Amino acid sequence: MTSAKDDRLVGRSVARREDPRLLSGRGRFVDDIELPGMLHAQFVRSTVAHGTITEIDLTRVRQVPGVVAAFTAADLELGDITAQLGRPLSEFVPTAMPVLARDRVRYVGEPVAVVVARDPYLAEDGLEAAKVTYAPLPPITCEEQALAPGAPRVHAEAAGNTLVDVGLFATEGIDEIFDQAPCVVHVDVRTGRQNALPLETRGAVAQWDAREEQLVLHTCTQTPHQVRTVASRCLRLDERAVRVIVPDMGGGFGLKCVVGREEIAAAAAALRLGRPVKWIEDRKDALSASFLAREQHYTARAAFDADGRILGLDADVVCDMGAYSCYPFTAGIEPLMASAEMPGVYKVPAYRVRGRAITTNKAPTAPYRGVSRPQYVMAMERLMERAARELRLDPVEIRRRNVITDFPYTGVNNITYDPGSYLESLDLCERAVREAGWYDRQAAATAEGRHIGIGYSCFSERTGYGSAAFAQRKMEVVPGFDLAEVRMDTSGAVTATTGTISHGQSHETTMAQIVADTLGLDIAKVKLHQGDTDRITYGWGTFASRSIAVGGSAVRLAAGKLGDKLRAIAADEWGILPEETELDRGRVRRRDDPDVALSYEHLADTAYLKSHLLPKDIDPGLTATAVFDVHNDGTFSNATHGVVVELHEGTGQVEILAYFCVEDCGVAVNPQVVEGQCRGGIAQGISGALFEQITYDAQGEPSATSFMDYKVPTAHEIPEVVIHHLETPCAFTATGAKGAGEGGTIGAPAAVLNAVNDALRPTGVELDNTPITPETVHRALIPRTPEQTP
Amino acid sequence: MNDTTGLGDDVQLITLDVNGTCYEVITAPRRTLVDVLRHDLRLTGTHVGCEHGICGACTVLVDGLPVRACLMFAAQAEGARITTVESLADSGTGELSDLQRAFTAHHGLQCGFCTPGFLMLAQGFLAERPEATKEDIREVVAANLCRCTGYQTIVEAIDACATARRSQRAAGAEEDSCN
Ligand code: FES
Ligand code: FES
């Protein structure tokens, strides 16, 4: 029904359509928006980690030249941002996040008041004149303090500082399995608190449109419709009285898929003042006072038989979610994800897990690219490596014996995995490392006393979560479906809408490829609309690698329906059945006589401008809408990463010598874009493994407030990545594509950690935590006397 | 609230030469070059990622050399030639330069927020060091931050552009010697 196979764009590395504007400075990011009479907001932020507010004195702020207004929570009277799970209180404690702190502050950097001035510099001057007095409370800065009996509470309603406590699975008889297993290994894995760190910080421009009686909120969010919901509730407006527009976005990685307090406060200030208000987060606030991620602790053990086959997995997962639950996902997102999916690519017959989210006096967390999977994959891969050592098996071989090979496979976690290439990717990755000569070079280097290690990680990435999968988490707000509209105008040009929103993923290109193929249309004729709640009926935005799998499927279906309508109109003109026609390069042609064809321009002319010619059963106009949802457990992309590292004595530096990635995301709509996602994700995964961490001192003061003290890797630290593609098409997405957004970040930390441990093998030291600091490596490499060897 | 300009008392008139156009700007001494470019001159192609000189998103050329426009006061740029990303494409046709085209061909950008900084960094560097090797280029690319690409494709794009320019020059030189 589409054009000849050779013309297909899906599967080809079509040049990105967003590039010309981004390369020539014609993009429009939030901070590029300038409106007449616009004011600038900045936030007075808490300087203590935990305390009650005894006084907020903004008198002097209001006297600062150029300051127009300053508001506290009491001035604005906004509703709270509260994320809910439909679980009993024993499993989930909801906590309200006020837009501005009212009487209590729970982390350093929490917004306490908003200052609005004529210019951002003057707003900063205003902040300096603010006087807030606190009665400090003891800060909770780590898991041990949070869970200590009788610990002070971060939220009065959360006993034991626990927001989520669930035991999703407990296979009967699991204790006996562990008692009788020939090999039981343990790990204690901790991952550092990170920042997803889009290079563009958060920001918003809010304006009351008096003619439309509508708040127009330009903001860089991955979830525009969800921001609209929260804004309308906090500001007590109808939802149609809020329009959220997302301009170009400088990355998000999850940090921008939750609703921030500042964008709502800026909107409230704009309504109060009747003037546009812009807020652009500075890097200091972005680093320490926005949404952080990743800090988790796994205590896990696995039982194996003598041949290295896994018999059981028993895990306790604690996620430090910081001060508040994020909207819409809640503090449940990480422990529930980890609990549901930890067995990963392995055939685990027995499973028990306890997943907890704790609250501490640290900036709240958002779901960062990979969400729990980088961490549980690390725990699983450490268990595999440890068992391989105990059982004297090759680390690749033990994985080979455990990966799922028969699909569909329903796991002990009640999840059905669709077909993937787990074993093939593992074999291919090992072969790539071997053929590049790394095993030989490792042997030679070891003989010279150098420390080269090879490590792997084998994982899947569940993508295309539909409403069924999210409903299982018992979210009160259940994401999942996506809605697309494809319409043709009288000139035969096509506009498609998607509820997803690109922040670097190239949707304007990939979605257009899908539409162009479906309609047999020149891609230049296709334009995508995204990120505007007035243009797009509804959408769930972009997260969980859903855009191509779910959003792309909706676009594909809508384009197909539009194609059907074009055929119906043409068929009517010829007096034949629609089935007797087909789409071909901008025309509908007769199957029986392919030389007879009607152009889309002609059909569009009929559909709109000569609608009296249409038969009764065909409505005028050329527009089609489709919804796509996933009613099963989603689709699993998979990959194996192989990495070669060298550890340097003295400096403790971990140098990455080579990186291999064998990935399978089904049909790659645009292979170059997929590779870009892999490379970028791997860079972020390496960052987590080796560099990035925000720590807190005993007072709850964050360590990182600038790029001087939060190490973001550069081209020095990030290696070239060799990528191999496998393709196991997804059977139920409309394009055969699976998601590809997060895999790189998921696999890299485990592979790097395993490689470091491989290099450390002669020392007897094994590391389980990230980031792996130079100090740790340096210490591990100091030669030990036999008594000191652990 | 007595301030109507939003600039404070201490304003000055400066003249800036940006992309070959002369601009007169009334500004405060503490205003950075990047803020004046972006918000006073509305040349928003240059971006701000940190305001403290690390990320390089604000890189522009000052007298041909890459400079972090967040670390420079606008007043300090008086009398210098400032070049921003807006100058790279052909101003008449909008056609992208060879460097910009190389970024597209190699997928050297995703969100595009860091891109103007990398383009100007490369533009300045390749003008100075047309013979730069891929290793040299990787060195220089390490001056700026990108959170999306993992850098490899940025290095490849700049290297491809440098290589193409060299072979063009060589071809040109040959032609010259024939004539
Ligand atoms: S904004 Fe100038 S270096 Fe980051
Ligand atoms: S392309 Fe997004 S930061 Fe570089």
From TrEMBL, chain A:
Listed Gene3D superfamilies = Aldehyde oxidase/xanthine dehydrogenase, a/b hammerhead (3.90.1170.50), Aldehyde oxidase/xanthine dehydrogenase, molybdopterin binding domain (3.30.365.10)
Q: Where is the secretion signal located? A: none
- Entry keyword annotation includes Transcription: no
Read off the Pfam families from this record: Ald_Xan_dh_C, MoCoBD_1, MoCoBD_2
Sorted keywords for this record are: Molybdenum, Oxidoreductase
Please give the InterPro entries that the UniProt record associates with this protein: Ald_Oxase/Xan_DH_a/b, Ald_Oxase/Xan_DH_a/b_sf, Ald_Oxase/xanthine_DH-like, AldOxase/xan_DH_MoCoBD1, AldOxase/xan_DH_MoCoBD2, AldOxase/xan_DH_Mopterin-bd_sf
Q: Which GO terms describe its molecular function?
A: iron ion binding; oxidoreductase activity
Cofactor(s) named in the record:
Mo-molybdopterin cytosine dinucleotide
Domain spans labelled Aldehyde oxidase/xanthine dehydrogenase a/b hammerhead = 24-138
The UniProt transmembrane annotation reads none
Q: Which SUPFAM superfamilies match?
A: CO dehydrogenase molybdoprotein N-domain-like, Molybdenum cofactor-binding domain
Q: Which portions of the sequence form the region Disordered? A: 765-790
Q: Answer yes or no on keyword Nucleotidyltransferase.
A: no
In terms of PANTHER family, this protein maps to: ALDEHYDE OXIDASE 1-RELATED (PTHR11908:SF132), XANTHINE DEHYDROGENASE (PTHR11908)
The name under which this protein is listed is: Xanthine dehydrogenase
From TrEMBL, chain B:
Q: Where is the 2Fe-2S ferredoxin-type domain?
A: 12-88
Looking up Pfam families in the UniProt record yields: Fer2, Fer2_2
Which UniProt keywords are given for this protein, alphabetically ordered? 2Fe-2S, Iron, Iron-sulfur, Metal-binding, Oxidoreductase
PROSITE patterns in the cross-refs: 2FE2S_FER_1, 2FE2S_FER_2
The pathway this protein participates in, as annotated, is: Alkaloid degradation; nicotine degradation
GO MF term (any one): metal ion binding
Q: Look up the domain of life of the source.
A: Bacteria
Q: What is this protein called?
A: 2Fe-2S ferredoxin-type domain-containing protein
